[in-house]
Amino acid sequence: MSRAVIFDLDGTLIDSAPDIHAAANRLMAQHGFAAFTPDETRSFIGSGVPHFITCCLTARGRAGDGALRARMIEEFIADYETAVTLTQVYPGVMGALDGLAGADLALGLCTNKPKGPAHAVLAHLGLDGYFPVIIGGDSLTVRKPDPAPLQATAAALGARDMVFVGDSEVDAETAARAGVPFVLYTEGYRKGPVERITHDRAFSDFTDLPGLITDLLS
Ligand SMILES: O=C(O)COP(=O)(O)O
Ligand SMILES: [Mg+2]
């Protein structure tokens, strides 16, 4: 199969910010730090766990503590595997994935979430069967916005023509650096306005996605 649609995960297919917020506050409490608001932790999402923990420590004035950071990354990832109960699939996602798979498009996932937690939440939500290829934030030595994870996902799918669907500035930069068309989901965790994010198409309702993709790949 040579045509593929590759998806980001957090803020694109699933609203996982409530679980990430809860896990972050468990970790902060364990280390005696004050809790974050949901908006604060949402603003830390998008560049993977090491960056997320750096944001948490920077906000509490402890950015320079490398040993603490390393310990907290490990503890966060361990907790993250079971932090799935507050996460919801965005409306219309299953129907859109069924439509795309039925149109003979290969589906892949390219996320900065570590592979273990990504598999766990996909299985919990019944989404795991859709993606034969999943590249996570710890699959390679680099993460998005480096183009390598997206290129690795495409290579593993055997895709020649593809589209990347994501919610963030990081995803837009990844697609641009890989030379792949980018479709922006506007209801996720972007940090700035839609007009400031380079994209080929944008959508806010998953029922519109199969049509957009068919149009872009034709
Ligand atoms: O884990 C993150 O920081 C973001 O994950 P995503 O790449 O699926 O949006
Ligand atoms: Mg995302």
From TrEMBL:
Pathway: Organic acid metabolism; glycolate biosynthesis; glycolate from 2-phosphoglycolate: step 1/1
Root EC class: hydrolase
Gene3D superfamilies documented for this protein: HAD superfamily/HAD-like, Putative phosphatase, domain 2
Matching InterPro entries: HAD-like_hydrolase_sf (IPR050155), HAD-like_sf (IPR036412), HAD-SF_hydro_IA (IPR006439), HAD_2 (IPR041492), HAD_sf (IPR023214), PGP-like_dom2 (IPR023198), PGPase_prok (IPR037512)
Keyword Transport: no
Cellular component per GO, a single term: cytosol
Residue sites binding Mg(2+) per the record: D8, D10, D167
Keywords of this entry: Carbohydrate metabolism, Hydrolase, Magnesium, Metal-binding
Pfam family, one: HAD_2
Cofactor(s) the record lists: Mg(2+)
EC number: 3.1.3.18
GO molecular function, one term: phosphoglycolate phosphatase activity
Role according to the record: Specifically catalyzes the dephosphorylation of 2-phosphoglycolate. Is involved in the dissimilation of the intracellular 2-phosphoglycolate formed during the DNA repair of 3'-phosphoglycolate ends, a major class of DNA lesions induced by oxidative stress.
Family recorded in the similarity comment: Belongs to the HAD-like hydrolase superfamily. CbbY/CbbZ/Gph/YieH family.
Protein name, UniProt field: Phosphoglycolate phosphatase
Organism in which the protein naturally occurs: Roseovarius mucosus
Gene label: gph
